[in-house]
Amino acid sequence: MPRSVNSVKSRKRRKKILKRCKGYFLSAKNVWTVAKNIWEKGQTHAYVGRKLKKRDFRALWIQRINAACREEGLSYSKFMGALRKSNILINRKVLADLAMNNPDTFKELVNKVKAGV
C-alpha cells in the first residue's frame, strides 16, 4: 500500500504558524522548524504571563489603596479589616479606582469606616 500524505493540510498548518510568526527576528519568521519552536515557547510564556498579570494588578491595587489610606491616617490592613466589620463589600479594583479618580468619595468611605469601628 502506498504511503499517504496530506500535503494540503500540512502546508496549511505550517503556513498558519508562519503567519503568526511575522515580525520575528531572522530565521524565526520563515524557517518552519525554528518558527514552530519559538512560537510554542511564546505560547508557554503567554500562558504564564496571563497568570502573572492577575498577581501584578492585585499588588498595584493594594499599593494604591494603601497610599490613599495613609493620607487619611489609616493603614491598609486596618482599613480592609474595618471594611469587613462594616459589611461593606467592595473589591480592591474598585477601591483602587476610587482612590485614584474619586478621592472625595474614597475619603467619605474611609470616614464611614472609621466611624463604624
Please describe what this structure looks like:
The chain is rod-shaped, with a radius of gyration of 26 Å. By secondary structure, it is mainly alpha-helical. The longest helix has 40 residues, at 32-71. The chain has one domain: Ribosomal protein L20, C-terminal domain (c-terminal domain of poly(a) binding protein, Orthogonal Bundle), CATH 1.10.1900. The protein has helices spanning 7-20, 32-71, 76-85, 92-101, 103-116. It contains 5 helices and no strands.
Label this structure with key terms.
single chain; 117 residues; mainly alpha; c-terminal domain of poly(a) binding protein
Gross morphology is: rod-shaped
* Integer average pLDDT: 92
The N- and C-terminal alpha carbons lie at a distance of: 83 Å
The number of helical runs is 5
Helix proportion: over 70%
Q: How large a portion of the residues is in β-strands, by DSSP E?
A: under 5%
- Detail the poorly predicted runs: none
Which sheet architecture does the biggest sheet show? none
Structural class: mainly alpha
User: What radius of gyration results from the CA coordinates?
Assistant: 26 Å
Remind me, CATH topology?
A: c-terminal domain of poly(a) binding protein
CATH superfamily: Ribosomal protein L20, C-terminal domain
CATH arch. level architecture? Orthogonal Bundle
**What's the number of structural domains?**
1
Helix and strand string, N-terminal first? HHHHH
Strand tally: 0
CATH class: Mainly Alpha
